Amino acid sequence: MPFRLLISLGLLCALLPLHHGAPGPDGSAPDPAHYRERVKAMFYHAYDSYLENAFPFDELRPLTCDGHDTWGSFSLTLIDALDTLLILGNVSEFQRVVEVLQDNVDFDIDVNASVFETNIRVVGGLLSAHLLSKKAGVEVEAGWPCSGPLLRMAEEAARKLLPVGNHIDVLTGKWVAQDAGIGAGVDSYFEYLVKGAILLQDKKLMAMFLEYNKAIRNYTRFDDWYLWVQMYKGTVSMPVFQSLEAYWPGLQSLIGDIDNAMRTFLNYYTVWKQFGGLPEFYNIPQGYTVEKREGYPLRPELIESAMYLYRATGDPTLLELGRDAVESIEKISKVECGFATIKDLRDHKLDNRMESFFLAETVKYLYLLFDPTNFIHNNGSTFDTVITPYGECILGAGGYIFNTEAHPIDPAALHCCQRLKEEQWEVEDLMREFYSLKRNRSKFQKKTMSSGPWEPPTRPGILLSPENHDQARERKRAKQKVPLLSCPSQPFTSKLALLGQVFLDSS
Ligand SMILES: *[C@@H]1O[C@H](CO)[C@@H](O)[C@H](O)[C@H]1NC(C)=O
Ligand SMILES: *[C@@H]1O[C@H](CO)[C@@H](O)[C@H](O)[C@H]1NC(C)=O
Ligand SMILES: *[C@@H]1O[C@H](CO)[C@@H](O)[C@H](O)[C@H]1NC(C)=O
Ligand SMILES: *[C@@H]1O[C@H](CO)[C@@H](O)[C@H](O)[C@H]1NC(C)=O
Ligand SMILES: *[C@@H]1O[C@H](CO)[C@@H](O)[C@H](O)[C@H]1NC(C)=O
């Protein structure tokens, strides 16, 4: 059958009146306050079940009420759920878990960890919890947000991942799969181009994304669905919607492409309505699941898109998706010991797993969809001023960027700690240079400083340990091409003048 015809059949199904913006059972828009409480209850049912039955294992097995390790052996669900606790307003439990993690989690173990999954879940979870810990009432050390125990744990976990390879065969440089699309395999790449551009204020990343976006729209988009195409010929290889692709409307909303985002979102929402969840693969022209891909592991992506789009439009249809998600997850997947992965959306059979992203992402995005005044949605009208040993930081003003496991990062903290470190490296480097020059030139002797070899300035925080110091030097060297305070071609004396508050050149 020619492809166009197949698509039209798919569209016919998508356009049935039942599928678009239908009112709730009682005809009114969902009540956010009611659904906030429902989502909270959902969280605690799953979270308490994990603690009772599965901790310290990575994940809960909800059908047998026990636990198992999945991505390592890091009490993954606890780390992944930590910042969700704060978003739901539970500071006491957040504080307790921070203690538990510091006492119990050990990254010095021999396991086969997935680089990608460990990075987004463990490193991302710890980083986010570190940045939120002051808000959660945890007593933070003097160098926070540029240092702290959770940050050190995140660093340790990240360093463990570094020498490990990944699945990619980088030696041949050949494309193994020649299908191009927006889903599995590339989804987080596109997501991070946009989010990285925002977080790091990097125009190059955004330019890259916009270039890809043009090709994606030219070759893979058909009637606001996105398909898989043969990357050289442009012919459709798979007229399939993958549930992982449901992040796309959210990403479009981040670049301001609201109308396209909303149209694609509504397409995907029809699939949710058809099954009460998103099958891993959905054959668009056939309007049905794909064999062996009928499961729904309670993924967040469509809800995530609804949250972004609701922020942008206030369209109540988006709350309806939230309502449908709460109702159907509770109806289909809730069991005595938590929420179980749906193995098959056709008959609602269950699997004995509750993925950690259910508490990290699905519940979090649902709650944020229904909680318009959550601190995460801050529009800059309030902020905290934090005095660090390096200077003043403005934090918590909003604009949080979620990593691909929904762990929010405050871009201001990144800016603050990076700026201060660059300045510190500049100063340290100049001091080294100064003393090396002083030793070479006798007329400098005893003029400005007391004698003795130069010591790095003692400051609290992560820069203190020798290995970090070396790392800082490495990064400093890399940074030297675009230094903040000095120009490599400037003579030493004028560099000193720039930093005149540190010491004066008396030669
Ligand atoms: C916080 O979470 C703990 C553990 O689930 C629970 O016992 C406690 O009641 C919660 N507190 C609030 C304020 O929700
Ligand atoms: C990790 O995987 C390798 C290769 O598959 C295997 O030999 C090794 O025993 C595994 N290690 C652990 C701790 O599971
Ligand atoms: C997409 O299509 C437009 C208009 O047909 C064309 O100008 C543009 O070069 C195409 N872009 C890519 C990346 O193929
Ligand atoms: C920002 O948020 C505050 C508090 O929610 C609200 O009063 C204010 O109108 C918002 N400002 C803008 C520009 O949206
Ligand atoms: C100081 O002298 C040493 C050895 O003579 C030389 O390697 C170094 O580059 C000199 N430093 C400066 C800043 O001139």
Question: What does this entry look like structurally?
Answer:
The protein has 507 residues and is mainly alpha-helical. It has a single domain (32-166, 177-422), classed as Glycosyltransferase. It has 16 helices and 18 strands. A hairpin with a 2-residue loop joins strand 11 (334-335) and strand 12 (338-339). Helix 2 (32-53) packs antiparallel against helix 13 (357-370). The chain is globular. The model is unreliable at 1-24, 165-176, 444-469 and 476-507 (pLDDT under 50). The site of one 2-acetamido-2-deoxy-beta-D-glucopyranose (NAG) has 3 residues, from loops. One 2-acetamido-2-deoxy-beta-D-glucopyranose binds at residues 110-112. Pfam families: Glyco_hydro_47 (PF01532). It comes from Colobus angolensis palliatus (Peters' Angolan colobus). The active site is at residues 117, 187, 280, 301.
Radius of gyration: 26 Å
Oligomer: single chain
Strand order of the largest sheet: 3-6-7
Secondary-structure arrangement, i.e. CATH architecture: Alpha/alpha barrel
Instruction: Please count the helical segments.
Output: 16
Total DSSP E strands: 18
CATH topology-level name: Glycosyltransferase
Low-confidence stretches: 1-24, 165-176, 444-469, 476-507
Mean pLDDT: 80
The overall number of domains is 1
Helix content: 40-55%
Described by the principal axes of the CA atoms, the overall outline is globular
Ligands bound here?
2-acetamido-2-deoxy-beta-D-glucopyranose
Sheet/helix structural class: mainly alpha
End-to-end Cα distance, whole Å, is: 86 Å
- The amount of beta strand, in percent, is 5-15%
Tell me about the biggest sheet?
3 strands, antiparallel
> For the record, what CATH class applies?
Mainly Alpha
